[in-house]
């Protein structure tokens, strides 16, 4: 039985320390003792430390929205996994579509980051997904398989099973509506098929796949109703702590 997951990323929306602390306090008050749903929060990089100090007394894990491909060295302006671990962080978001497009991150670079995270015992939250909306599921599967092959290159079966895959189609990220539940269910099934083909059925059964892209209180129940969807990665619709808590509660009830 795969443990359900709810993650939330604040991107670069919440950049003042007081606001970030108040938000983290509110989330902890709402769901900071929840144990049946695994949770993690990825604050903005500038407020990572103050949020870390609040999350450490809760069951909510700390994640960074990015890491450098190496732990230490001459990488001006980058964020080291050493700092994340020092703050007791245990998740790293890697390969988000905004990193791939705005900052031209290649699959090779993403693979380096995934491997580094696993070496440092940090859980990679690997974001994958298509850019253009399409109903050609053969093409979607081919793209997913290519991304997974390149991004998980050199990983053993045991290592791959520790990765959290976040399916985030670019055309649904930051938009008014999420991808339809039918589409999400179909693609999650295809992603699991890809893992089975690249690794084996045991790894495909163990790996957890979550959906991100305009997840809200209103659509989460349908999205997580399929057994191949292990949870959600929440964005702006989780900026209200009570709405976020409602999403966690829905995932919990659907996966019990």
TrEMBL record:
<keyword id="KW-0324">Glycolysis</keyword>
<dbReference type="GO" id="GO:0006094">
    <property type="term" value="P:gluconeogenesis"/>
</dbReference>
<dbReference type="InterPro" id="IPR013785">
    <property type="entry name" value="Aldolase_TIM"/>
</dbReference>
<protein>
    <recommendedName>
        <fullName>Triosephosphate isomerase</fullName>
        <ecNumber>5.3.1.1</ecNumber>
    </recommendedName>
</protein>
<dbReference type="GO" id="GO:0006096">
    <property type="term" value="P:glycolytic process"/>
</dbReference>
<dbReference type="InterPro" id="IPR035990">
    <property type="entry name" value="TIM_sf"/>
</dbReference>
<keyword id="KW-0413">Isomerase</keyword>
<dbReference type="GO" id="GO:0046166">
    <property type="term" value="P:glyceraldehyde-3-phosphate biosynthetic process"/>
</dbReference>
<comment type="pathway">
    <text>Carbohydrate degradation; glycolysis; D-glyceraldehyde 3-phosphate from glycerone phosphate: step 1/1.</text>
</comment>
<comment type="pathway">
    <text>Carbohydrate biosynthesis; gluconeogenesis.</text>
</comment>
<keyword id="KW-0963">Cytoplasm</keyword>
<dbReference type="GO" id="GO:0019563">
    <property type="term" value="P:glycerol catabolic process"/>
</dbReference>
<dbReference type="GO" id="GO:0005829">
    <property type="term" value="C:cytosol"/>
</dbReference>
<dbReference type="Pfam" id="PF00121">
    <property type="entry name" value="TIM"/>
</dbReference>
<comment type="subunit">
    <text>Homodimer.</text>
</comment>
<keyword id="KW-0312">Gluconeogenesis</keyword>
<dbReference type="InterPro" id="IPR000652">
    <property type="entry name" value="Triosephosphate_isomerase"/>
</dbReference>
<comment type="similarity">
    <text>Belongs to the triosephosphate isomerase family.</text>
</comment>
<dbReference type="GO" id="GO:0004807">
    <property type="term" value="F:triose-phosphate isomerase activity"/>
</dbReference>
């Amino acid at each position: 039985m795969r443990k359900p997951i709810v993650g939330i990323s604040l991107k670069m929306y919440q950049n003042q320390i007081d606001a970030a602390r108040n938000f983290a306090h509110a989330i902890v008050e709402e769901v900071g003792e929840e144990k049946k749903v695994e949770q993690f929060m990825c604050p903005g990089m500038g407020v990572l430390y103050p949020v870390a100090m609040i999350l450490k007394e809760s069951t909510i894990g700390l994640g960074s929205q990015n890491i450098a491909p190496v732990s230490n060295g001459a990488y001006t302006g980058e964020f080291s996994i050493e700092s994340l671990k020092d703050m007791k962080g245990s998740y790293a978001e890697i390969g988000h579509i905004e990193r791939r497009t705005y900052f031209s991150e290649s699959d090779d670079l993403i693979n380096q980051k995934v491997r580094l995270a696993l070496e440092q015992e940090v859980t990679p939250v690997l974001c994958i997904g298509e850019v253009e909306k399409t109903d050609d599921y053969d093409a979607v599967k081919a793209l997913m398989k290519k991304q997974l092959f390149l991004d998980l290159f050199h990983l053993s079966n045991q290592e791959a099973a520790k990765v959290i895959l976040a399916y985030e189609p670019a055309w649904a990220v930051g938009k008014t509506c999420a991808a339809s539940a039918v589409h999400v269910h179909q693609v999650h099934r295809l992603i699991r098929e890809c893992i089975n083909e690249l690794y084996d059925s045991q790894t495909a059964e163990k790996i957890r796949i979550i959906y991100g892209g305009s997840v809200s209180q209103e659509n989460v129940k349908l999205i997580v109703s399929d057994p191949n969807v292990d949870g959600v990665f929440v964005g702006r619709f989780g900026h209200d702590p009570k709405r976020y808590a409602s999403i966690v509660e829905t995932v919990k009830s659907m996966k019990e």
